[in-house]
Design a protein that fits this description.
Layout (H helix, E strand, L loop, with lengths): L6 H7 L2 H11 L8 H12 L3 H18 L20 H6 L3 H15 L6 E4 L6 H8 L4 E5 L2 H17 L11 E5 L10 E5 L20 H6 L7 E4 L5 H4 L4 E7 L2 E8 L8 E9 L2 E3 L2 E3 L2 E8 L14 E3 L3 H5 L3 H8 L2 E2 L7 E3 L8 E9 L2 H10 L2 E9 L5 H8 L4 E13 L2 E10 L3 H4 L9
Parallel strand pairs: 1-2, 1-4, 2-3, 4-5, 6-8, 16-17
Antiparallel strand pairs: 5-7, 6-7, 8-11, 9-10, 12-14, 12-15, 13-14, 15-18, 17-18
Helix pairs in contact: 2-3, 2-4, 3-4, 6-7
Bound molecules: S-adenosylmethionine.
């Protein structure tokens, strides 16, 4: 069970004694084996707040693991997570910083139209989105119903502004924090942004429009100025029936959010934004920084309708493209055709430059026997399985096939229901440019 922080805990953690206790605890291993001894050591410095200190150190480590060190990777930006306060659930709910930064830049662009003076994050939690909004140069108000998270956000924003201070003083624009219910309008003249919770208290993931607060309640707070909404990527946006634009955003090959942009900010009906990173490194004596790469597809882009038999390569588009129903637009941009009008697999004679694709070595109507023969013939040790349009469960099939050859020999099995029958493609993966695949790579010598 994750630790439940109290207001008294946050007060202690931000006091001089708390900062010293956190500093001392950050040098401890705090693993299962050392846990009890470590807790006793922390208790001597933190008394009744020892568990809060230990939990904070562990959560900071998780944040760094997930998002990177400040300044070392653009995915973390300039944020030093080792100075932040989190709860377990708040950390799980927060968006990856590059995704928050992308959304904040879009919000900032709308502000420049002059209608709003700044942004109000009405479900700000501990402030990851707030940091992105101020980082994009906006005057920002943050509010949340949870007093503990709000107290943590106050500390995090102060830390963030100090950390980004230039010679002239804190660079961060003012952030005002207030405890408020997002179901009521509490500010005027600010663009409202909401990221309602997707997990209930039991940790159950919410994939429908059934968020906390609900979309209907958030909209009803000020129907003339609907908020920009960050929603679960699995949301059935067609039944959400909210006017405006839906943007599916992926980061490193996983869809992270669906953003519902009200009509006043929408430029298209559907958009897929693919964010990926190229990790920097050292080449010779040059230090190459990390970069976040963005590619966008929209429903007003040219679309490819041609359906053809499999050519030499198969391509599985980024999941944001698939979720946004923009596979035909993706095919047109990459010079590919559709394998089936209802499937997201695409095909072409050449691997699209930089895109992870799959060279077809063999193809046959799907049967487990055929796949087993291919696996034995090629003496593979590693098998990746992708399927669309069939009930096959890749993990179960892999266990049954049990590749027992050399682990360095790998193949990708793609099973696609083409027309009425599943077809199996035995493929060799052609690695893409890390910028496009969402995978990361280190430059040689790094
Ligand atoms: C998904 S989290 C937001 C994460 C945040 N965007 C970030 O950057 O970390 C949802 C937040 O909504 C808050 N919340 C839930 N119901 C609320 C309500 N009625 N009014 C205001 N905040 C609410 C929760 O306390 C929680 O902090």
């Amino acid at each position: 069970m994750p630790y439940t922080f109290s207001i008294a805990d946050t007060r202690f953690l931000t006091s001089g004694a708390g900062v010293d206790a956190l500093q001392a605890a950050s040098g401890l291993r705090l693993t299962g084996a050392t846990g009890i001894a470590d807790l006793l050591a922390v208790r001597s410095a933190a008394g009744g707040h020892a568990a809060a200190v230990v939990e904070t150190v562990l959560l900071r480590r998780r944040a760094v693991e997930r998002w990177g060190e400040a300044g070392a990777d653009q995915s973390a930006g300039d944020i030093d997570w080792n100075a932040w306060l989190f709860t377990d659930e708040a950390l799980q709910q927060a968006p990856p910083p590059p995704v928050a930064a992308h959304r904040a830049r879009r919000i900032r662009a709308h502000l420049s139209a002059g209608k709003y003076a700044g942004a109000h994050d009405v479900t700000c939690s501990v402030g990851v989105d707030l940091a992105a909004l101020t980082g994009a140069g906006m005057v920002t108000v943050g509010s949340d119903i949870d007093p503990v998270r709000l107290a943590m956000a106050a500390h995090n924003m102060a830390t963030h502004n100090m950390a980004t201070a230039g010679p002239a003083g804190p660079a961060g624009l003012p952030v005002r924090l207030v405890r408020a219910d997002a179901r009521a309008a509490t500010t005027r003249g600010l663009l409202r942004y909401a990221d309602p919770a997707r997990r209930d208290a039991t940790g159950r993931r919410i994939t429908s429009a059934d968020t906390i607060p609900s979309v209907a309640d958030l909209d009803a707070a000020d129907p003339a100025h609907l908020p920009v909404l960050r929603l679960p990527p699995g949301i059935d946006y067609q039944t959400l029936a909210r006017p405006g634009e839906i943007e599916m955003v992926s980061w490193r090959g996983t869809v992270r959010e669906a953003v519902a942009w009200p009509p006043e900010y929408a430029t298209v009906g559907r958009r897929a934004t693919v964010l990926s990173s190229v990790l920097g490194g050292v080449i010779g004596d040059r230090v190459i920084g990390d970069r976040v790469i963005r590619e966008e597809f929209t429903d007003i882009d040219p679309a490819e309708d041609a359906v053809t038999p499999a050519a030499r390569y198969l391509v599985d588009p980024d999941p944001a493209v698939v979720r946004a129903h923009l596979v035909r637009q993706y095919a047109a941009r990459r010079g590919l055709t559709l394998l089936d009008p209802h499937l997201a697999y695409l095909t072409g004679d050449a691997p699209p430059p930089g895109i992870r694709s799959f060279e077809i070595l063999d193809a046959a109507p799907y049967s487990e026997r055929t796949v087993r023969q291919w696996a034995r013939r090629d003496a593979i040790g590693t098998l990746e399985i992708k399927q669309r349009g069939t009930p096959i469960v890749p993990d179960d099939l892999r266990k049954r096939i049990k590749p027992q050859g050399d682990r360095r020999i790998d193949r990708t099995l793609i099973i696609a229901r083409i027309g009425r029958h599943p077809q199996a493609f035995w493929c060799r993966a052609v690695p893409g440019d890390p910028g496009h695949t969402g995978r990361t790579a280190r430059a040689p010598g790094a």
